Structures are given as C-alpha cells and as structure tokens.
Amino acid sequence: MNFGQRDDPELPRYAGLATFALLPTLDSVDRAEIAILGVPFDSGTSYRPGARFGPAHIRENSRQLHPYHAVLDAYPFRAMQVADAGDVAVGPYDIPRAITVVERAARRLTTAGSRIVALGGDHTIAFPLLRAAAEVYGPLAVVHFDAHLDTWDTLHGASYWHGSPFRRAAEEGLLDLAHCQHVGIRGGIYDTRELEDDAQAGFQIIRSEAFLTDTPAEIADRIRARVVDVPAYISVDIDVLDPAYAPGTGTPEVAGIATAQLFAVLRAMRGTRIVGADVVEVAPAYDHAGITGLAAAHTAWELVTLMSLA
Ligand SMILES: [Mn+2]
C-alpha cells in the first residue's frame, strides 16, 4: 500500500508544514518509487542569484496539488509511493564539492530504487543528477525545456556552472548523443559556433517560435521521435516559460511559452520512459504572487504523473 497526501479534514491545505504536495517524508515511509529531492544550490548562477530558495518556494506553492490528474486520468500518488526526500545538505562556497555532494545524495536514492524529481536550485545541479541516473540506466535521452542551451564551456574560469551541465554530461558519456532534445530555446548567442558545439553535445533544437505554428501534439511527436525508447531524463528550467508566467528566475528571456503550452507538450509525451527529472531555476525573490512557484510545483506534479504511468 502506498501512503498519499496528508489527509486531515480538520487541517486546511494552507496550514501545517509544507512537504511537496503534502506528501509523506521519505523517512516516514522508508521507500519511494519516486522521490522528490530539493537541491538548494545556486552558486553556479551567472546573472540574478536566488534559486537556492527555490525548493522551499516550490513546496510552499505545491499545497493545492490534488490526488487526481483529470487530463491524464491518473492517480499518481496511488499508483506509486511518492515521498519528499527533503533537501540535499549542500553549501554555497565550493561548486565541485557541491556536485559531489548532490551526486552522492542522488545515488543514495537511485541505488535504493527511487526515481528522482529534483527541485532546484540552479541548472548546475542537473549534472550530478544525470551522473546518478546514468549510473543506473546508462546513457540518457535528455529532454531539456529551457530558454538557453546550457551546453556552453567555461565562464569566468569555471567549468561547472549553470550554463554547462549538458556539455559536461556529454563529455562524460552520460548522454545518448543521438537522442537529446532542447525545447523552447530563444536566449542570446555570441557566436554560431555555440550552436555547433551544442549539436556536438547531442542536442536538436525546437525553438520557442515553433509553438506559434505547431500544436503541442506535433511538438511532442517530434520529441518522442527523437527520444524513441532510450531512457529519458526531463530537465525543466522554469525560464522556458515566458517571464509573464515565470518572472521568478535568474535569467529571464522574453517571448517564451505559456505554462499551459508546457503542460500540453508534457501530457502528450505520455508513455515516455522517464527515469529522472528536475525543475530548476526558481528564484523566489523575483516572483510575484507565487506565479513561478505555482508553475514549478505543478510542472513537478506533471512529471510525477507521467512517471507514474510508465
Ligand atoms: Mn538552464
């Protein structure tokens, strides 16, 4: 039997401690097929800092997540044991050390049989999370929703920062280079060599403008054709959304997609074998009325639901 969300008719959803979706903590249920893992780390941020406060903000904005997913006709928390594994104990001063710490925390969960949905944190954290997932599942098909490529090399002398996780992952053989896909790209480019490097790292690009002409189902078809049956890791940088839908993020880019468009694409990916996921770059200091926190919490719920179905 799986333990679901807190069920106390006397305690309103807005009251009490906020675990993700008011789910049980991992230590209270012992095992989880899907573990929600906070990674409060943002020392890899290149522009506006603050994503270290993302996990707490996402949890606080996840109180209205309900057991039943009406569009996918699914009860994700009944189908699988989903639990909140808390936050990684990671400090801000040493990025390589933080990568080791996050990888170790993720491996504890993956070797115990959990698939992870991580709450960031800046995008640097995808790299150690990919290490842990690839160790179990082999080279991964990364489906990366983001305004930015994140396959850059060094910045300010740092190899590990929030613009390089997928380049470092490709170099380490963590990615299946024939099956990775960016979605929602529109950020600035210094030189077209960056696009050549990006292709070398295994990615094809669906730009944000594609959403003006193609339906979400068509875009999902392109993603599925790219991923095929390779184990998929879904990484959602909340800045894939337009700043109108996600102002609370470190490197916002205008002319992005809507939350509903993101969800329509994710739902149309039903059946994809997702072995890990993250929702990153939520920086609550720039948020308003919980817009970004709500978008991130519900994105994580969409990912959990997809994972509960395949
Ligand atoms: Mn990113």
TrEMBL record:
InterPro entries assigned to the protein according to its UniProt record, in alphabetical order: Agmatinase-rel, Ureohydrolase, Ureohydrolase_dom_sf, Ureohydrolase_Mn_BS
SUPFAM superfamilies xref list: Arginase/deacetylase (SSF52768)
UniProtKB keywords: Hydrolase, Metal-binding
Which Pfam families is this protein grouped with?
Arginase (PF00491)
Provide the E.C. number(s) assigned to this enzyme. Answer: 3.5.3.11
Q: Which Gene3D superfamilies does the record associate with it? A: Ureohydrolase domain
Name the Gene Ontology molecular function terms of this record. agmatinase activity
Q: Which domain of life is it from?
A: Bacteria
The Swiss-Prot or TrEMBL record describes its family as follows: Belongs to the arginase family. Agmatinase subfamily.
Q: What is this protein called?
A: Agmatinase
Gene name of the encoded protein: speB
